[in-house]
Amino acid sequence: MQTAFTQLIGVSLPIVQAGMAGVTTPEMVVAAANSGALGTIGGGYLSPDALRQQIRHVKSRTNNPFAVNLFIPKANASDATDLKQMREILAPIRTRLGLDAMSDAAPEPPRFEDQLQVVLEEGVPVFSFTFGVPAPAVMDACKQQGILTLGTATTVEEALELERVGTSAIVVQGAEAGGHRGTFLPYVREPLIGSFALIPQVADAVSLPVIAAGGVMDGRGLAAALALGAAAVQMGTAFLASPESGAHPLYQERVKQAIETDTDVTKAYSGKLARGIRTKWMEQLATYHASIPPYPIQHYMTQEIRKRAAELGMTDYMSMWAGQGVRLATEHFVADIISDVMQQAQRVIHGLSSNWPTA
Ligand SMILES: Cc1cc2nc3c(=O)[nH]c(=O)nc-3n(C[C@H](O)[C@H](O)[C@H](O)COP(=O)(O)O)c2cc1C
User: What is the pLDDT of residue 220?
Assistant: First the structure.
């Protein structure tokens, strides 16, 4: 199935396995790439060394193109936020989980510049990004090295901005999508536009290949996305319960049981809106929504709690990102999910065209 996306990237299938920070494993990326899809390393939280290791692992097991996904840092992130209230909310939870009082030292997240350096040095074929627009120097460096770029948009306006800076193709993320919202323009209200409405509007506005993300779980979703003007789909939730997934076993269990009403969007874990399976922590913080420190501060403030909760198997405090299509997630191998999607999409497309009344 050739589309503007497969031709641009040099893959055989119009499917991207989403780079899911903290969940994607090199095994998942290799399985996706060797199936003919574009596999993506979710590198957002990885140290430069860990990222390099994952890239080399993938390179040693596939000759097909693959991508690395990173988070674009906010240029004017303020550290003047009042953290007192959040510290007070977190204190009893830390005690319950047997953690010491929170240290005053600010955590040191991996620097985007260092992660990007690894991407450039390793000659990764595709650089995928979310949460913003890279600086012109970053886009130039990728162009010079022949690295293709995939940027994430959640509105037509964001898609136009990505096109303007020279992105190769645009991931259009609908409100159904699991994980963090890629929204980067300063909207007063977070735009939560569904894929069905958003894909054709972006496809009309830009001349780049559009990759539909959000709620695509099987071949029906792929066929629908293509019909709406997309040239490929990016799937995340569909791979969460696969054997190659790095998600915690209890998280995978919840994914297998969850239904479409079980997810919600929240800032409780990271300070940036994201969709996941509803937890006690999300409900507890709902009343404080306006005073949650912005991303990435809240992410690092809750990091130890999430880690300890995972060790103790307490899903109440774990982040379990998943999209609204979660009921359709299976525990199949990545390669089988991809081949099922393709076969079903072909049946659906054929069925539609053969059922169409001829004048
Ligand atoms: C567990 C999880 C983690 C995610 N992490 C990232 C990430 O690190 N970078 C990114 O660009 N998108 C991330 N996403 C969003 C995906 O790229 C994509 O938009 C989404 O999975 C598509 O919707 P779906 O989950 O309904 O398939 C994540 C999604 C999930 C489910």
Answer: 98
